[in-house]
Amino acid sequence: MELRFVGGPYDGREIEAELLGTHASIQSVESGSRVRQFVLMPSPDDWARQLRGEATDPSPAHLYERVAAPDGPRLVYGTPDALDQARFESSVTLRPRARTALSTLEPETREAAVRTVVGLLDTPPDDWPGQVVKRDQGGWALRMVPIPGGFWAFILPQPVGRAELLDILRDDTLRLFLAQYQTAGAGRAG
User: What is the pTM of this model?
Assistant: First the structure.
């Protein structure tokens, strides 16, 4: 079966699914009852060299997502962060405050937050950057992880490459909260 490419440097090309399985990087992401499939393609020049059996740059350059169409599946050119976004949606539980915070961030900052959290999923929580805020009874440590752009994410690791995003705060808001908390604590101690 040939799959048609829509957009990007492969626009209009049709490539056999078997060739894609052999020469492209295919990644599936489960999200609830839905499975999203992504195809990471090399540059068209590297693709031609691969088919001739020549050595190429191993890093994929172009991301396509398989989507259903009335006349058969298509591979639609995606944004570079589409795979991270899919992994985020399938592996990260959002608390309401985190959902609200993400919805108010500028697109670049939201993408940085998603990339940061997804980047943590393949790393043991004890190796995450940032600070341990609190340990729960199960031994999981609530982490405060820096997000590029002057933000902090409060993340609770979960088993098997999952996490729960509790909140995202601006650095200045966090500093104000900590100063008020320390002042209130000093007043009670005296």
Answer: 0.67
